[in-house]
Structure formats: C-alpha cells, structure tokens
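Final report, closing paragraph on structural work. Over the funding period we assembled a curated collection of sequence-structure pairs, and we close with a single example.
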Amino acid sequence: MSIIGKYLNLAPMIMPSKGSGFSFFGFGSSKTITVDNAMQHTTVFACNRVIAETLGSIALEVFKTTDKGKEKATEHPLFNILKLQPNPLMTSVMWREMIVQDLNTRGNHYSQIIRNRLGEVIALYPLKSASMEVVLDENTKIHYIYKVGSKTYEVEAKDILHIRGLPSTDGIKGLSPIEYNRRAIQLSDTAQEFGINFFEKGANGTGAFIIPSELSETSYNRLKKDITDKYAGINNSGKPLLLEGGLKFERFTIPNNDSQFLETRKYQKEDIASIFRVPMHMINSLENATFSNIEHQSLEFVQFTMLPWIKRIEQALTTSLLSTIEQELYSIKFNVDTLLRGDFKTRTEGYRALLSNGVMNINEVRALENLNGIGPNGDEYRVQLNTTAVGETNDNTKN
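Its predicted structure, as stored:
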C-alpha cells in the first residue's frame, strides 16, 4: 500500500518543547533541546544550512559505462528524477536539502519509492523520519513501519530509500547528532537565553538599593512599582534614577565580558560546529580567518565534510534505485567538480597542464566551463613535441 496515496508528510514541524534546563550563571533555560526544536538554535541552523545548500547545489546524475568511459545516461528513467524533480511537489535541490536536514538532525532519511508496472522508478516522496520504525526480523529481513496518527502502514524494504548517517551499533539505523550532543547544544542555548534575559531586563536594575530606614508596606510597594515601571527593561535603559528619602543605589553587576559570557558563547559555537564538521568561517565567524587559511579550510570542507556525505548518499541511491543488473552498467554520481573548480587563474593553469600532457582534450575542458565543443578536432588528445624520454638526449647529441 502506498503511503503517499493515503498521507503525505514532507517535513517535521519545528515546535518548541517545554521543560527545564540546567542553570547558567544562575539563569535556567526555559526549554530542553529536542530534535525538533534544535533547528531554532542559530549555530545548528547555520551548520545544517551550509551542508544542505552545498549538497543541493551539486548536480546529481546517472552515468552509463561505455567503451569510451562514462557518459551521462539521459535516456534512463532516473536521470530527470534525480537531477530535476523527484516528485511533482518539489525540485531535486529541495529534496536533497531535506535529506541532509534529516541526516543532520535524526540521523536517518526515508523516501518512498514509487514504481510503474515495469518496475521503473517514477517518483521519490520523502517521509517523516520521526514516524518511521525500522524492525529486523529473525530472518535478518528489514521491515519499515510508518505511523500516521492512529494508522500504521508496513512498507516493504524495496519500496523505501533509507539513507543512514553515522551508523549505530546494530547498523540498522543511523545515529542522531542532536540526541548524542544534546547537552552541548543545551549549554549554548542556555547562554543565549541568558543574554536575551540580560538585555531585556536592562542593567539599571542590577544592584542594591540602600535604604536608611525601614519602609512601610505602602512605601515599599510604591517604590517597587516605580522602579519596575520606569527603569526596568531595555526601553528604559540609560534613564537616570530619581531617588528620594535618602535612598541610594549601588551597582554590583559583573560585566558580561568579565564573567566570560562572550567567551562561552564563542566556545559553544565552535563546539557545535565541530559536531557537523563545518569550518567557522562558513558560519560567519571570521575572527581567526585569513585569505590563505579560508581557502585551505574550504578545500578541507569538501574533502572531509561533503565527500563522506556524498559517498554515503550515492551508495544508498545506487543500491536502492538500480537493480543488480543495472548496477553493472549504470552508476549514480554527484558532480563534485563544481566544488573543486577554484578561481579562474587556478582553473586555467590546471587545464593547461592537463591539455599539454594529453590527459584531457579541448572539448572536455570546454564542457567543464559550460562551453560548446569546437568540432571533431576538439576531441583529439595532444602532447608537447619538445619532450623526450630520459636517456635519449645524450644519444641524440652524439649523432
């Protein structure tokens, strides 16, 4: 039974949960971090966005192995589904961004595979990860159980595209980065709430009022009301206190900088970025950035952050969407060249070296730059004539 025919749930709702957190500088958090509300944290959101948008911007295509090598299999039914539109409701970019969102929050992504009578894939619909249960029976066969309200649907494994993040010990499901790093995100979120509370309340009322004599209950309540109405809150920040009856105000606020508030915020931002392996300059933290190290870190981001995701997703798509026979002829690949192109000068120098050594031809280089070929002559591979084998120079000189 098709889940999509009964129910379509494209994305989990981001709803804040209620709960109590631990104390930070005497200020308790008003919520407990969950998978659903973690995206409300700025650093978590920024890291997810960087990875999701990067993966969404890379071309995803089906390739066919031929006598000349690999070429785009534009005739394959999956080609336009993966490259342009997996289902009528979303583009390929949106679908791939949802995959990353699921993997970075819950550690698992599920899409239902819709096939025609010939067994060809005609659509891929994302399912809500929180509603999916994965069961391994005694015959080591995986069953997928999808819950929608009071209804439960069992879907065969062949009809589910299951992409796992870092695998759990049983290998059936992936680990949730949010669940395993909840306390680190909780600490950062609490510090953020502390800062909001500090600036909303303002600094004028942080101190002690010294009264020379005891006030009556009426005078006390009037003083308390005047201070709250006239001086509390950020809108009243900067107003001078008007005191009467010998009342004195002495400030004892510890400045945020002295209490290492800013340092804590910075450290927690770095701590969360390390969970997702995102360089700090990519989430707008440029304190220690230079032109040279940003370029190097960007390359490391491609190699150590994006490539593991790319390989993980490529293999899941290949094994789930292509039959065993098709896998001998076809492959599903991301075009990572777009991430490694570099600036124009660097690309030009690289192309020149590849052309002069016969590694690439002119038409292949033009294709990488989205330019049309120059005809049959552009398919020829060329090498420089003024090069010779080691040891031949002395022999030619003697002759």
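DSSP finds 13 helices and 13 strands in the chain. Confidence is low (pLDDT under 50) at residues 6-28. We thank the funder for supporting this effort.
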